[in-house]
Amino acid sequence: MLLVLEQGLNGLQYGVMLFLMAAGLTLVFGIMNLVNLAHGSLYMVGAYLATAFARWTGSFVLGALLALPATLLVGVVVEVIALRTLYERDHLDQVLATFGLILFFNELVAIVWGRAAIYTSLPPSLSGSFVLLPGLRYPTYRALVILVGVAAAVFLYVLVTSTRLGMLIRAGASNRTMVAALGVNIRRLYTLVFGLGAALAGLAGLMAGPIYAVQPGMGEQILIQVFVVIIIGGIGSIRGAVAGAMVVGMVDTLGRAFLRPTLSTIVSPAAADKAGPALASMLIYLMMAAVLFFRPQGLFPTRGR
Amino acid sequence: MAISRRAIVLAAGAVLLALVPPVAGLLNQPFYVDLFRRMMIFAIAALSLDLILGYGGMVSFGHAAYLGIGAYAVGIFAFYGVDNGFLQWSVAIAASAAAALVIGVISIRTSGVYFIMITLAFTQMLYYLGISLETYGGDNGMPLKTRSQFAGLVDLRNPSAFYYVVLALLLLFLLLGRRLVDARFGMVIRSARSNEPRARAIGFAPFRYKLAAFVLAIGFAPFRYKLAAFVLAGGACGLAGALLANQTEYLTPDFMHWTRSGEIMFMVILGGMRTLFGPVLGAVVLLGLEDVLSALTEHWQIILGPFLVVVVLFAKRGLFGLVSRDG
Description:
heterodimer; A: about 300 residues; mainly alpha; 2 strands; B: about 325 residues; ABC transporter involved in vitamin B12 uptake, BtuC; two-stranded antiparallel sheet; 14 helices; about 75% helix
């Protein structure tokens, strides 16, 4: 039972990271109508910058604090140079051009930091574990990731629902032309929203550093799972992103942890050893197929799009 | 006039491709037979994608899946000592057709950006499936013990013989592809791309036709379509996968990697969508460019990436659009 709880927390932690990615992607799609495959690259850039800054300053926290605005800056630069011209293009052009950006970023990172995976070391205060319940210790850092992620989600909620910027974002999502006609500098709004999305991706990336390997191409592994999140949740919807991220995070983590032992009670252990991992890695895609079959627009479709 | 110009370009292309093995033999550069054979295999894959992407308007970001399924069909048979090419290649086509049917039924009900993400996600699922198949090499893949055998008709171990088999298949697919898109079937999927509500109002059920196009591009044709169309489009990508396994004599989940889907898609755009011949040109140019760039620097993708962006932004009509300007 404690094991289930621990894996549930791991699922929550993964779900939180998926949400940070999905929120940026879904905002950018909802407002600029842009399919940005290079969103995963910003996640990767965040992870690398945090690692580099942490080595430079000698402090993990300082590195993370520096990496966040730096990733935002990278996002803004990419938007101004390359993506701005893509808003009016069709999805095919956007997919291909951002695919080109992925190749560029993966190779750039490989040139600067090499192809081998690098690891971030945590300060002693974060690398330990604490007693969550009698008999259950949980890693401090993973708990911190959950807290930061939830805080970011709350921040985003407040930003979108009760600030002027949030109002413009919502207005931009429902009718861009009208917002521009009312005298809002829509280009600057786009750049801002893209920077926000980049910062969220960077946040997910820099938190991923100490848990997963930091290497070229790391962004696309998570990006495709984020697509599954968005497909399940419904594109353009923050609520959908929350729900999708939690479902995918939980199903993926719990599936990897418990599918094989569960299977071995039904079929022979040898067969379970073979089928378990295969099935676990396919689980979220099968779930996506099931959701699509019954609800092609996802669980929380946005109206009017 | 434009048509004759197009015909000349095509004939010249076919002759040039046919001359590759003897010229490479004269220059003592057998490597080029290998390279051009690889280009033509990807040309078949790109051609099949053009049918659904260009003519059908379905932006499938998962075409590498069928490449992988075709390759695994050959590889798994060979693993168990079955090296009959007729059997291997038929199963390659049938298996990728079945996969396309399942993926198509689910994804074609959606459109736009959903379609892109769903096809991508399903391909990623198959990629992970390939990785977890430990028996067949898992992550690392496995070597193909022998190339497909055709009862002494043709020996694929002979590089030139294999080359001409691929060339013949490519030309066959081009011809049949032309026939297919000009036929009623082609008209229907083209009309569904430009205006689906209107096509539906006229009385076609675009879902059914789109599904048929999606499946045809990979393998299975409804019986009422010509056998020729079936052989052509049906073979396309699954067969390209079977060819690819024979080409590399090695089998890895990387055949299904999502970047592979992106590459095939780029071949279509680079050469020119909705031309059938364009994707062939795109495959030759892209793989040629990769070959040249990778000889220059290990980090060739840092050049290829921005090149791709520039092509998308400024040369949407593709290379074939430059050669024949007859819209």
